[in-house]
Amino acid sequence: MWKQGDALEPKGTHDSLDDSITGQPKWQSFHSQEIRTRLAICSFFIDSCFAIMFNSYPLLTLGELSIEFPCRNDIFEAETAAEYEHLTMFDSPELRWKTPSQLIKDLLQDTWTGSSLEHVTAMHLMVTICALQSLVMTLRCSLVLEATGAAILRAADRWEDLWRTVTEGSKTRTMTGQGFVEHSDELCWLVRTLVQQGQLKVPDCRYTHILPTDNIKDFHDFLCRYKIT
């Protein structure tokens, strides 16, 4: 598990990096921090997938994911300090959503306007739907998914509204067609299916019995039974 001060702990933004504290130039300090952030996000994503595939509790909780979202790829891939400074010159903190846990809280709250989420990106939403997926598995394994299912489905509705808004432009469609991001809407379908069907114990579908397994076939059978037609 992650310990205090490890990758899941918040490290600050471009503006909060202090050369005198880190002992490194601002650009190098940011790059080191961003590597930790991306490692933590990837670890959370993989843990969420393993929980789904093997019908078990996730090992990492959303509350532990108190870091900020990863920065834009062009900033992370800057090869010189000058390029980094140029790219971050107009990268205002106000235009970046803070943490995955904050975004999930917004999606789950009773009142919702979506007005504060205008700067959410496709990458933000990919991380968020993985977090919602992880939350569903925690609730499911704790036998309280039925009691909380309405809030999860409402959050999924809000997520889908954001996804449609973010992906409607041609430029954004190009961005979403990278890796797992383009499949985020399918993960949302899975979240819905787990809430709607995951509490029903079907005799010939072992996955519905909430028993940990090391056989991915159980998950495959579940998907085949409830796949989109």
TrEMBL record:
Coiled coil: none
Gene Ontology cellular component terms for the protein in this record: chromatin; nucleus
Entry-linked InterPro entries: VerF-like (IPR051059), XnlR_reg_dom (IPR007219)
Keywords carried by this UniProt record: Metal-binding, Nucleus, Repeat, Zinc, Zinc-finger
A Gene Ontology molecular function term of the record: RNA polymerase II cis-regulatory region sequence-specific DNA binding
One GO process term, biological-process aspect: DNA-templated transcription
Region (Disordered): 1-23
Membrane-spanning intervals of the chain: none
UniProt keyword annotation of Ribonucleoprotein present: no
Protein name: Xylanolytic transcriptional activator regulatory domain-containing protein
Originating species: Botrytis galanthina
